[in-house]
Amino acid sequence: MRSEFSSFFFYSRFAPIRPDISWDIVPGRIQHMETVSPRLLRPSVPFEIHTHAEDSWGNVNRDQANLSFRLRILNEESEIVLQRDVSCPSQGWTNTIFSDLQLAGDGDYTIQTFLLAKDADYKVQNAVVAKDSRAVVSKVSHITVSSDLAVPKILFGDLHVHSDDTVGTESSTYNFTYGREIAGLDVLGYTANDFQITKARWDVTVELIKSLNEPGKFVIFPGTEWCGNSAAGGDHNIVFLADPATHAPEFPFDRHGNVARSFEWSEDGPQDLVPGTWPLDEVYCTYAHDTENNLLIPHVGGRRCNLAWHHPKLERLLEISSAWGHFEWLIRDAVKRGWKLGVSANSDEHRGRCGGGVPGTAVFGTRGGLTGIVAPQLDRENVASSLRARHTFATTGQRLVGLLSMADGSGVQGDEVQVQSSQKVELDYHFLGEQGFSSIEAFDGSGLIWSRNFWSESKEPATILRITWGGARLYDRYREAIWNGKITVSENSTVQWFAPFGGFENNREDRVTRKDNHSLSFLSKTSGDLDGVNIHLKDGKLPSTITVTGSLGGYVKVGDALAGNPHKAQPTFSISASLEEALVSNGKHIEIKGGADLFVRIEAIPDIALPRRVQSRAVFQSGQEGAQSIYFVGREWNGTKVVTSPIFINHV
Q1: Alpha helices in 255-344 (DSSP H)
Q2: Beta carbons within 10 angstroms of residue 137's beta carbon
Q3: Alpha-carbon span 605 to 501, nearest angstrom
Q4: Cβ atoms within 10 Å of 611's Cβ, excluding its own
Q5: Is the pLDDT of residue 598 over 90?
Q6: How does DSSP classify residue 480?
Q7: Average of pLDDT values for 537-559?
Q8: Given this model, what pLDDT does residue 579 score?
Q9: What per-residue string of b and e applies to 438-454 under the rule 16 or more CB within 10 Å gives b?
Q10: With 80 as the cut, is the pLDDT of residue 139 above it?
Q11: In angstroms, what CA-CA distances link 532 with 320, 466, 483, 485, 536?
Q12: Cα→Cα distances 308→231, 334, 336, Å
């Protein structure tokens, strides 16, 4: 990976440097494997499994000799139904793609991948794992085959990928190749910051997109990011859905020759800022004549979108998760306003790791998201139609699935349906995860209207103390919340061991430390996501009281970084719970003033295996009047989640 700092960088203070400074980023030693596959598909549909090795920072390893990959797929009886071995290339990425795979029968399958050393003296950072003595690292994931699926397979896309054409890292060729071969994306949306891209670079990249787009394999859409500030409408991606070979995107000029960018300011452009299409109303005017081929996606990045602006025919999806953070509050806002917007989640990738890559630093606080797409075929026309139909779901970067449909077959997520006001609304839901779902919830404009808590549904006694905290300090840029806290349990119980989760899984700088037999300290950062720790007590004896205290700060933009930046609305927090309070469903929690969904929660949970697959029906009482938008959220125990697009119900 090559990192470059150009003469102009829109997001901060700058000084001209000639020539540009660049250096190579070299991966560390192999730490773990990542494996990517479809999560849900029909029987006998061909598919691929992508796997690669990473260092502890999420960089793909490269130039590793004497290694090979092994794939095993096991059925529900733990029988091996497929096994393959492939040599690892000694040059380039440490990865492989297992292609032309098929599974004939319905069921839930387990995928095992191994990176094997041909040389017994191969030295790695990890201890040997798995049954094979030559295994360097391994990975377990899951895939489900279902004859009931209405499409060949569920597709995954990242519709928001930057490159060094503008403020990203690495070339467009590198980013597209990474998305196709490492991230295993079905769909990728190239995104040029409209103020910075030159016409020459835009034209070259559009030609590259034409050459790499491969129906049935890999679909790429060209697009731009309209970079208006929130007072003018806020960030919006413009995805050009039509084939650029036959329908040239209207950028950087529209069909009348008018400027089609927010403004122009770059090292290759005019010395002074040149105004363009501004505010957001002007963008609507530019593309409203062809709504079928132009998709606008409001999102929260450097400049939070403002949902006071809305064009129902152009704006069909909303980006609710990216490397900037998790923004579940945004879909709540849209539904409350009555806007009929589906959901997407993308990387907004600036660092050359699209398709759910690990967090960066500072303003990029979470793993990039993924958009699930329910489309009948993997080609530009069908994917574009499904995106505009809002047949989507959003994940926090993992291959999770969330499907929602009317029980009578009259519609699926994203559709508009009519229901007699005297009739109940019956919705079928189907969720597939990796770590196990702790809850499934349903929301409409009034808030939470239905839920299942799988810890509460269990009859097993609580034996684990679970502490979680999260949210963001701001709705806008520099939203990172920095938590510095202490967990104390009463002396009638003893901490035996603990397991951090959430952001701790991706950020090695965050930490939980045991202070003594009755207390832990933690330091972590959240950007709308959650962090947490499961505490296991000696002999399973839960404490009579639990206290969590600490301070809350944020990103230091100006001033002494070592002095910190206290959260002005509430710089400290404290919550104490009795065992009885911790044992109730969802435990006890506090909301912290200011910010976006800042919270701390204490709960006691049983030590059980949570379901990776949840499929059932939810029934909502009759008597509603007018419009109602219902969407579902599946939350895994470790903080990963999947959100469906709403079904838009008109009660008549």
Answers
A1: 280-287, 328-337
A2: 23
A3: 15
A4: 16
A5: yes
A6: -
A7: 95
A8: 98
A9: bbbbbbbbeeeeebbbb
A10: yes
A11: 22, 7, 11, 12, 13
A12: 10, 9, 12
Domain boundaries 459-606, CATH class: mainly beta
CATH of domain 32-145: 2.60.40.1930
Q: What is the pTM of this model?
A: 0.95
CATH architecture of 155-399: Alpha-Beta Barrel (3.20)
Q: Which residue has the tokens 């019956």?
A: 426
Q: How many CB atoms lie within 10 A of CB 62?
A: 17
The tokens describing 620, both together, are: 């909502």
In this structure, which amino acid lies at residue 423?
Q
If you write DSSP's letter for every residue of 26-91 in order, what string do you get? PP-S--EEEEE--SEE-TT--EEEEEEEE-TTSPBPB---SEEEEEEEE-TTS-EEEEEEEEPPSS
Q: How does 186-217 read in b/e, with b if 16+ C-beta sit within 10 Å?
A: bbbbbbbbbbbbbeebbeebbebbeebbeeee
Provide the token pair at 579.
């065992």
- Average pLDDT value for the chain: 93
Which two structure tokens, joined as six digits, stand for 341?
Answer: 């917007």
Would the pLDDT of 2 be above 60?
no
Nearest to 189 by CA among 316, 347, 376, 359: 347
Cα end-to-end span (Å), the chain? 57
Residue type, 597: D
**Is the Cα torsion angle 505, 507, 513, 518 positive or negative in sign?**
negative
Domain boundaries, the chain: 32-145, 155-399, 459-606
Domain 32-145 and domain 459-606, same fold? Reply is: yes
pLDDT tens string 32-86: 999 999 999 999 999 999 999 999 999 999 999 899 999 999 999 999 999 999 9
In whole angstroms, give the CA distance from residue 140 to residue 474. Answer: 36
